[in-house]
TrEMBL record:
Record's protein name: Carbon monoxide dehydrogenase
A Pfam entry, by short name: Prismane
NCBIfam families associated with the record: CO_DH_cata
Domain of life: Bacteria
Keyword Flavoprotein applies: no
Species assigned in the record: Acetobacterium tundrae
The EC number(s) this enzyme carries: 1.2.7.4
Catalytic activity: CO + 2 oxidized [2Fe-2S]-[ferredoxin] + H2O = 2 reduced [2Fe-2S]-[ferredoxin] + CO2 + 2 H(+)
This protein's encoding gene: cooS
Keyword Heme: no
A molecular-function term among this protein's GO annotations: anaerobic carbon-monoxide dehydrogenase activity
Cofactor(s) required, per the database record: [4Fe-4S] cluster
Length: 632
């Protein structure tokens, strides 16, 4: 077990020592067993797209095999591998969105799945051109909008409807470069076809197709996922929560919800309020039922209900190791296949709920919209009945938790801005103009979206927190989602008190608007909220968002979804900084295309930088260059 990259995390050492005592295996044991990771894979030059392979070409030009059996060179192999990561990521986000839309299609006035933000339902229906959007009966309209949204996945003609949210200048770039995404499934399928053996070998062409598929994620799947979840479960508003493993309560039945899709988790949160279950828990010797969240199911639930955040991706094993979790309930994505075996070391029941993420060794309860509340009731019962099986000698919950503020949807941010708008001036209410104004005035130097996972290649949370602290110190306002948001929560950056860590300008803005300097905007699909916010800011000035002093950052990413995200953020004109180097360095041409040449035709590029402090320096130069170019 190698602990040298865990020093930053205050709970890691004790948790891993306990795992050892309990004879439980963790990701660190498995990482050690992997020994040195494959250099060909790391450079992206291993191809196993057809059964003549696998072929691996030299990551160093001029040394060793330069082509696979079919003749594909490093440029082609790297480009294809990268593109297939985008296809995987876009599929995950978009298929998640499709499930949300299906849930909306199943809504009824009297069912547990109902419309909770009717105003947003009507707004988006009008945005998508439904006639009578303001007068139609709520559920008839919801079903009509859901059917229209399902069309976004497979319609034979046209591009994604939400693209119109971007200023015209950006839409023109997409049209000119042919990266405006068509139907989501079509983009994924075309990319898989294009990267099939014997199809595209031109690395720039593959890059462009990958970019369009990434765009189908950001402006299609993810944006639909976010907006339709809001319609179904309510648009988040600012609220308090708390974070880190200390939110697990030794006196209560603890249920960990983990994954990404809020459909079942919403039902669990609803069911847990049932007084009958609370009485049942008391009869078993517990004080109540404590739902805690992890990864993006946790984010979805904290954004809408203030559900406590047990931790981020890397802490999923640590939760179980506390010995105090009665049930881990998972839906889709970012779930370690190792969890069922780990759960068996304790009394924890591991319950998977989606056929798309059926996990070997689990207990499986199939979720569907028709049975959602029954599924949730069954899960709560299993957890409550499991409470007496807890082994007190194995319970050790780190005494560490941090208060946090969450729930900053675009609407919640505008609401906060409205409270400081001087109604005696011509300032419009209900817009992001005050935010754009403080950026233009230089009170804030720019904005950064910090997102993404944890990755055992780097110190847990260190890059997230370092980048965030250094940016707010330099008057850059930050928005966060995913596991980066949970890192920020644990570090106390999502609090009003965090203004004390800011530069003078940002501190003043935080005080006037009554917000933390780092705003939790939600789950991974909710990066679409960030996209929307940036485009609204650009719209205020009537400019391409590529001109704004704004950056995207994924300091510790690991998943294919992050690759899709990085692509749509760059495709949307925002320079994107990656703290983990993607597996592309085996092709200097493809690397140059990503980090330099695409600036030419997209107005943005990728930056690879492992050192968070150096990354911040580069970001500040980037932001100041943008300011100079704008003359602000
Ligand atoms: Fe090898 Fe070409 Fe087949 Fe890839 S597609 S495995 S490079 S023969
Ligand atoms: S959960 S995709 S580890 S951010 Fe969205 Fe965290 Fe990354 Fe999963």
């Amino acid at each position: 077990m190698s602990n040298e990259i865990l020093n930053y995390d205050k709970v890691a050492e004790a948790s891993l020592a306990k795992a050892k005592r309990d004879g439980a295996e963790t990701m660190w044991d498995r990482k050690a067993a992997q020994k040195t990771q494959c250099g060909f894979g790391e450079a992206g030059v291993c191809c196993r797209i057809c059964a003549m392979g696998p072929c691996r070409v030299s990551p160093v030009p001029g040394k060793g095999a330069e082509r696979g059996i079919c003749g594909a060179n490093a440029d082609t192999i790297v480009a294809r591998n990268f593109a297939r990561m985008i296809a995987g990521g876009a599929s995950a986000h978009s298929d998640h969105a499709r499930d949300i839309v299906h849930a909306m299609h199943a809504t009824k006035a009297e069912g547990p799945f109902k419309i909770r933000d009717e105003a947003k339902l009507r707004r988006i229906s009008a945005e998508w051109g439904i006639e009578g959007a303001d007068t139609k009966e709520t559920y008839a309209l919801a079903h009509e909008l859901a059917e229209m949204a399902l069309g976004e996945f497979g319609k034979p003609f046209g591009t994604q409807r939400f693209l119109k949210r971007a200023p015209q200048a950006r839409q023109d770039v997409w049209e000119r470069e042919d990266i405006a995404p068509r139907a989501i499934d079509m983009e994924v399928t075309t990319l898989m076809h294009s990267t099939h053996m014997g199809c595209a070998s031109d690395y720039e062409s593959i890059f462009r197709r990958g970019m369009r598929t990434g765009m189908a994620d950001g402006w299609g799947g993810s944006m639909i996922g976010t907006e339709f979840s809001d319609i179904l479960y309510g648009t988040p508003t600012a609220k308090a929560s708390s974070s880190n493993l200390g939110v697990i309560d030794k006196d209560q039945v603890n249920i960990l919800i983990h994954g990404h899709d809020p459909n079942l988790a919403e039902m669990i949160v609803l069911a847990a309020e049932n007084p009958e279950f609370i009485e049942m828990a008391k009869a078993k010797g517990a004080k109540g039922i404590n739902i805690v969240g992890m990864c993006c199911t946790g984010n979805e639930m904290t954004m809408r209900h203030g559900i406590k955040i047990a931790g981020n991706f890397y802490q999923q094993e640590m939760c179980i190791i506390t010995g105090a979790i009665e049930a881990v309930v998972v839906d889709v994505q970012c779930i370690f296949p190792a969890l069922p075996a780990l759960a068996k070391k304790y009394h924890t029941r591991f319950i998977s709920t989606s056929e798309k993420a059926k996990i070997a060794g689990d207990m499986f309860i199939k979720f569907s919209e028709a049975t959602g509340l029954d599924n949730a009731n069954e899960i709560i019962k299993i957890a409550v009945e499991n409470f007496p099986n807890r082994d007190a000698s194995k319970v050790e919950i780190p005494d560490i938790k941090q208060d946090t503020l969450v729930g900053y949807s675009v609407e919640a941010i505008i609401d906060h801005l409205d409270k400081v708008v001087n109604t005696n001036t011509s300032d419009a209410m209900g817009t992001v103009k005050p935010l754009t104004d403080v950026i233009y005035a230089g009170v804030i130097r720019g904005a950064a979206g910090v997102v993404g996972c944890n990755n055992p290649k780097v110190e847990h949370d260190y890059a997230h927190v370092t980048v965030l602290k250094e940016l707010i110190k330099r008057d850059v306002i930050c928005v966060v989602t995913g596991c980066a948001a949970q890192a920020a929560a644990k570090a106390g950056l999502l609090t009003l008190e965090a203004k004390e860590m800011c530069g003078r300008g940002l501190k003043e803005v935080c005080e006037r608007v009554n917000i933390p300097p780092v705003l939790h905007m939600g789950s991974c699909v909710d990066i679409s909220r960030i996209l929307h916010l940036v485009n609204l800011c650009a719209d205020v000035k009537g400019i391409d968002p590529a001109l704004l002093p704004v950056v995207g950052i994924a300091p510790e990413w690991m998943s294919e979804k992050a690759v899709a995200i990085a692509n749509y953020v760059v495709g949307s004109g925002i320079n994107t900084y990656l703290g983990i180097i993607p597996q592309v360095l085996g092709s200097p041409n493809f690397t140059k295309l990503m980090t330099e040449d695409c600036q030419e035709f997209l107005g943005a590029h990728f930056v690879f930088e492992k050192d968070p402090l150096v990354m911040v320096d580069k970001i500040m130069v980037d932001l100041e260059d943008k300011r100079t170019a704008l003359g602000i």
